[in-house]
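Chain A, query sequence.
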Amino acid sequence: MNRINEFDPFSFIVGILGVIAGIISVSRPDVAFSTVVLIVAVFSIIRGIFKLTHMTDIFDSKGWIIFNSILDILIGVLMLFNGAFGMLYIAIFFAIMFILDSLTALSLAKYVKNVSHGYYIMDVIFAILGVVVGILLLISPVASALSVAFLVGIFFLVSGILMIVHSI
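Chain A, predicted structure.
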């Protein structure tokens, strides 16, 4: 548990990249949709690798982290090598990723509670919001596809900010 109190440069860099990708997606939705599949695929692969290499060493419960990490990597690779598939189904994949990541964050929040109550509250709030948004995206994938650049931008911003906060 000591590692969570140390500065993590990998999390910090990935967090900054997430924030930059979020700002680009929100500010240029006309251009962002054509590149969003590539951005989401790369971010998903990096995030999955990060969770697989860093999170499994920190927590006792490794099964869910490993499953979630591998799922992030597989979804990222699938979107990376089949752009049409990724564009067609990005709303559904995005909703599933949002829900799974949020459920993972919610299940891991108990470990953060021992280190910082403020981080715990922030993680629980963002995780619950993530589950709600993910369910809404599953209910209306057409609406989410129409605003995918904005939604991905918000996801990148939130994930990036959380990674930066946790890296410090």
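The chain has a mean pLDDT of 83. The radius of gyration is 15 Å.
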